[in-house]
Design goal:
The chain has 174 residues and is an all-beta fold. The chain contains no helices and 17 strands. Strands 2, 4, 5, 7, 8 and 9 form a 6-stranded mixed sheet that branches. A 5-stranded mixed sheet has the order 11-17-16-13-14, with no helix packed on it. β4 and β5 form a beta hairpin. The radius of gyration is 24 Å and the shape is rod-shaped.
């Protein structure tokens, strides 16, 4: 038998990750998480199996292995991590107050490595953005950027970092 998912070395925020792989057709597959049996399933005629744990697994690192056949042959062992902690996002640099530019470069960071970012400019829907990012062609007036980090496990910062500034490129009357 072979465990294919969760893939070795992956992270997830799903406490009941689907465990799947291949085994001899129509054999009983015993699922072992951290060395303990958490249930059984039967491999299909197409030699695949899928199993979802009945109870939540705890946050942290786990191993998954299966046994199948008679005698019960062990599979490979995959290690995966359940991460339930969302990253925190910080705006490191960007415009503040009133600026005389229609471009706004920003740099941000997170307390977790390997995150991606989503930005919302002036209340728009959050969308993927790069770090650093520069917004161009901004209109006169107030603008607000909200940015949130998303970690490898899929956890999203629920308190996005935010920065408000004013674009003012109009020369004063003299």
């Amino acid at each position: 038998p072979v465990v294919q998912a969760p893939a070795n070395g992956t992270q997830t925020n799903n406490q009941r990750p689907v465990i799947s792989g291949t085994a001899e057709a129509n054999t009983t597959v015993t699922i072992l998480v951290d060395g303990a049996s958490i249930g059984t399933t039967t491999a299909t005629a197409a030699v695949t199996f899928t199993f979802t744990p009945a109870a939540n697994l705890t946050a942290g690192t786990h191993t998954v292995q299966v046994t199948a056949g008679a005698p019960a042959l062990p599979s490979n062992t995959n290690t995966f991590t359940i991460d339930l902690v969302a990253p925190d996002t910080t705006i490191v640099s960007g415009p503040t107050g009133s600026v005389a530019s229609t471009s706004a470069p920003f740099d941000f960071s997170s307390n977790e490595a390997g995150v991606s970012y989503q930005c919302s400019l002036d209340g728009s829907a959050f969308a993927a953005c790069t770090d650093p990012v520069t917004f161009t062609g901004l209109s006169q007036g107030s603008h607000t950027l909200a940015v949130r980090a998303v970690d490898v496990a899929g956890n999203v910062d629920s308190t996005p970092a935010s920065r408000t500034w004013v674009v003012d490129t109009v020369a004063p009357d003299t």
